Amino acid sequence: MKLLPIGSVVALAGNSNLIMIYGHLQKDLNTDKIYDYIGCDYPLGIIDTNQCYLFQDEDIEKLAFVGLQDTESIDYQVAMSKYLDESGLAGRDKS
Prior knowledge:
- It is a single chain.
- With 95 residues, the protein is an alpha+beta fold.
- It has one helix and five strands; from the N terminus they run E-E-E-E-E-H.
- Strand 1 (9-12) and strand 2 (18-27) form a beta hairpin.
- The radius of gyration is 13 Å and the shape is globular.
- The two termini are 17 Å apart.
């Protein structure tokens, strides 16, 4: 699985707001479920921590913008892909 870069802006199924990704592989502290992404409303940003979104790759309905892809982010992508494959999280239920 290849994760979208930080700063990517997406539309989620069932949500009319655009969401900007600002983190990967986040755990819901109430359920211990691991989500592919955490994001906030775009363009507003994090105004209230109760308005952050945990979501999976399959929840993305539309990609509106791809975040920065420089050498550092590409190295990060390679490391994350390796981690996902080795941990068994890639392509599986993350609960």
